[in-house]
Amino acid sequence: MENVTIRVPRDAAKIIEKLEQAGYEAYAVGGCVRDSLLGREPGDWDITTSASPEEVKAIFRRTIDTGIEHGTVTVMENHVGYEVTTYRVDGVYEDGRHPSSVTFTRNLKEDLLRRDFTINAMAYNPRTGIVDLYDGMADLERGCIRCVGVPEERFTEDALRILRALRFASQLGFEIEGETLAAMKKLAPRLSLVSAERVRVELVKLLGGRCPEMLVTAYETGVTDVILPEWNSMITTPQKNPHHCFDVGRHTIVTIQAIHKEPGYLAADAHDRCVYDMTMLLHDAGKPICLTTEPNGKQHFRGHPKAGAEVAREVLRRLKFDNDTINTVTLLVRYHDCRFDFKPDADFDRTMRRIVNRVGLENMHYLFPVMRADIEGQHPDYRERGLARVAEMEEAFARIVREKQCVSIKTLAVGGRDLIALGFAPGPSLGDALGRLLQLVLDAPALNERETLLDAARKILHEEM
After folding, report:
1. Kind and range of the H or E element at 384?
2. Cα–Cα distance between 351 and 428 in angstroms, integer?
3. In this structure, what DSSP letter does residue 221 have?
4. Which of 97, 157, 250, 389 could connect to 93 by a Cys-Cys bridge, CB 3.0–4.6 Å?
5. What value, to the nearest 5°, has the Cα angle with vertex 155 and ends 152 and 157?
6. Could you tell me where the beta strands, DSSP code E, fall in 167-282?
7. Per residue in 175-220, pLDDT tens?
8. Contact predicate 249/280, CB 8 Å
9. 163 dihedral zone (left: phi>0; alpha: psi -120 to 50; beta)
10. How many CB atoms sit inside 10 A of residue 374's CB?
11. How far apart are CA 83 and CA 69, in angstroms?
């Protein structure tokens, strides 16, 4: 163990060294040790120590009482905060989420015993090396998520750990050990004790991991009974249709895997990746509602994008997503299938302008990756044709942007003030008139000239008199 070397950032190592010089033990602990051993870049470096919070504050010049009642003090070094937490033993978890009290201890073993999984219960000191009391390194090598101690005790203490097990399995591509999995299944109903916000965080991380198929395990263990019953309906809905070769749930997983390979996703920030992942999760959530079956057994899902948008909005609100994410995901779910809007004899660019108007110019960069990912989850016989249609749509969209064609009221050559000057009264009739002008321009972009639209507006005003 002591031969393992981890590169600890200079400031984190400096904090550990200062604590040791003052006569205390100190280690980097938890996720930063796990990620370092896996060759991943840790997001942050947490430190655990035998020093009490007051003793930590006496050693360092700049500290913040982040969670001092639980033993955590944030030490500031070069404008970066490092959480330093005193070894502790948790009291009774009365609410199934948080200990009612904590007791500080000088024993590292007792502190590590309270942690969730073996891979998160390792500590490292640059001078003395790894402390691995529960075979976390062996579980890393095996690719195994295993609770520290008795799984039922860990999940009874904090039900959120059930979701964390699924999330880590997805992010790391690990399997969940048998006893741990059995305890998850037994105690899944306790997830009702977990706040929607915490469920949201873990679900987003699971979806963004390398193995979003852990959603199937979430279903099999009863987790989605509590946090996402809509998923249960999806994974139990078959698709007996020539366009599909998976049930709705497994189709959804393939589409999430596909969106992760899209250049737009790979270049996206955390917010946009969340939008993509939640869109793919919910894009067919309306299918169980809209399922119809012909006498010959063939199934259809007519109207599922609209129904899915309603389901998506309900799910996202329940999970306390921000309004921007709710509105964007709902919109993308509503129009993810819009490639079928093109009729054989239709003006392609005109149809595309109407799609851009509905989706919004600012959201089109999401739509094409979503559509391609959806197609990747369909029957192979239809993929080439579907992807070709999306490519045509992208070309048409590029023309619209390049030629600065009008696709919204705000890009009309006239505005509300112009129509008021003609005699329109502010209110619904004004909005209706602008909408009618926009329809003219969506049909024929060349009409988007000031005088042409003013003439058309005068005719509308005359009709109303």
Report:
1. helix 380-402
2. 26
3. T
4. 157
5. 105
6. 175-176
7. 999 999 999 999 999 999 999 999 999 999 999 999 999 999 999 9
8. no
9. alpha
10. 24
11. 14
Cβ pair 86, 53 in contact under 8 A:
yes
* Protein fold of 143-227: Hydrophobic Seed Protein (1.10.110)
The dihedral through the CA atoms of 25, 30, 33, 37 has a sign that is: positive
Cα 315 to Cα 111: distance, rounded to the nearest angstrom: 37
Query: What pLDDT is attached to residue 89?
Result: 86
Rounded CA-CA distance 361/338 in Å is: 15
- C-alpha pair distances (Å), 355 with each of 51, 247, 393: 62, 28, 10
β 46-49/26-29 pair status: antiparallel
Give the model confidence (pLDDT) of 71-123 as tens digits: 999 999 999 999 999 999 876 666 656 666 678 899 999 999 989 999 999 99
Instruction: Please give the structure tokens belonging to residue 160.
Output: 């959120």
Q: How far apart are CA 126 and CA 8, in angstroms?
A: 7
Of residues 229, 215, 219, 18, the one with CA closest to residue 127 = 18
Taking the alpha carbons at both ends of the chain, their separation in whole angstroms is 88
CATH 3.30.540.10 fits 10-141, yes or no: no
Q: Where are the domains of the chain?
A: 10-141, 143-227, 246-402, 409-464
Alpha-carbon gap, residue 320 to 101, rounded angstroms: 28
Q: Contacts for 266-274 with beta carbons within 8 Å, 24 or more apart?
A: 271/325, 272/366, 273/208, 274/204, 274/208, 274/325
Q: Which residues contact 52 (CB under 8 A, 6 or more apart)?
A: 71, 86, 104
Give the C-alpha separation, 228 to 176, whole Å: 20
Residue 460: name the closest of 424, 421, 428 by CA: 424
Q: Tell me the CATH number for domain 246-402.
A: 1.10.3210
- Residue in 175, 173, 220 with CA at minimum distance from that of residue 38: 173
Backbone angles phi, psi at 213, to 5 degrees: -65, -5
DSSP H helical ranges for 291-360: 304-318, 323-335, 348-359
Helix axes 323-335, 270-282, angle to 10 degrees: 40
Residues in the chain, how many? 465
Amino acid at 277: D
Residues 146, 117 contacting (CB under 8 angstroms): yes
CA-to-CA distance for 146 and 134, rounded, in angstroms?
10
Find, among 103, 166, 179, 173, the residue nearest to 142 by Cα. 173
Could you give phi then psi for residue 393, rounded to 5 degrees? Answer: -65, -40
CA 41, CA 339: separation in Å to the nearest integer?
41
In b/e form, how buried is each residue of 443-460, taking b as 16+ CB within 10 angstroms?
eebebbeeebbbebbeeb
